[in-house]
Design brief:
The chain is α+β, with helices and mostly antiparallel strands. It has 4 helices and 7 strands. Helix 1 packs across helix 3. The longest helix has 14 residues. The relative contact order is 0.19.
Length: 165
Amino acid sequence: MTIQPDSGSRRFPLSAGVILKKSQGAGRWTLQQWTLAGVLLIQPSSVIQMGRNSESEWVHHRYDLRISVHKNCCESYYQNLCSDTPKLFVICRLDENRIMQPIQITVDCDEATAYMEADDTVFFHPMPKSVVSWLQNFVVDFYRPQPSRKRRRQDWKIGSARHES
């Protein structure tokens, strides 16, 4: 399917479907382990399903996540696009039943890092070509690199009581 997104759009025209897989932990101290099994681009819907593959393995699906972009985050999008493999970041949290819930999907590296620093789980997945193309158009339209400026050290001695005596 070929997608011709509007480059000025702030939302990708398709929803992202996230498939998480829960399995038994491999070690003594790990009871369960969640992994990202895949990301699908589908027509927008609000379907959430959960099923059991076997006694020790659960698969969790969520199909209503949307990829949004903002003009002020273009630097991070540019850095993501310049990497060897541009990535989608899936941000998840454990709910009260210890089930991993995908809460957001983003292409912003800085946002993903902020969620990781706040102890949320962040999975990454290679960005589909249609999203890469859409994001490249958005970055070309809105990204204006700021010239790098050398910061000057502030002279802390000026105005101090010790320096005046």
